[in-house]
Amino acid sequence: MKVAAYICQGCGLGERLDTKALSGVAKKEGKAAIVKEHEFLCNAEGVQMIRDDIANEAVTHVMIGACSRRAKTEAFGFTDVCVSRANLREGVIWCQPETDEAQETTQEMAEDYIRMGCAEVKKMTLPAGDPAAVTERRLLVVGGGVSGMTAALEASMAGYQVVLVEKSGALGGWAARLHKRTPGKSPYADPQDTPVAEMAAAIEADANIKVYLNAITSKTSGAPGRFEIEIGTESGSTATEKVGAIVQATGFSLYDANKLPELGYGKSANVVDQAGLEALAKAANGGAIKRPSDGGEVKRVVFVQCAGQRDDTGKHLPYCSGSCCLTSVKQAMYFKDANPDIDTVVIYTDLRMPGNGEDFYRSGQTKGVTFTKGKVSSVEAAGSQCKVNFHDLILNDQAVIDDADLVVLATGQVPNSGVDIDTKLKAEIAAAGGDNSLMEAYNASQEEGAVKPISVLNLTYRQGPDVPQLKYGFTDSHFICFPYETRRTGIYSAGPVRRPMDMVQAMEDATGATMKAIQAIENAGLGRAAHPRSGDLSFPKVRLEGCTQCKRCTVECPFGAIDEDEKRFPLFNQARCRRCGTCMGACPVRVISFENYSVETVGAQLKAVDVPDEFSEKPRILILACENDAYPALDMAAMNRNVYSAFVRVIPVRCLGSVNTIWINDALSSGYDGVMMMGCKHGDDYQCHFVKGSELASVRMSKIGDTLKNMALEEERVSTFEVAITDIERVPQLINDYAALIQKIGMSPMKGF
Question: Is 3.50.50.60 the CATH classification of the domain at 257-414?
Answer without folding.
Answer: yes
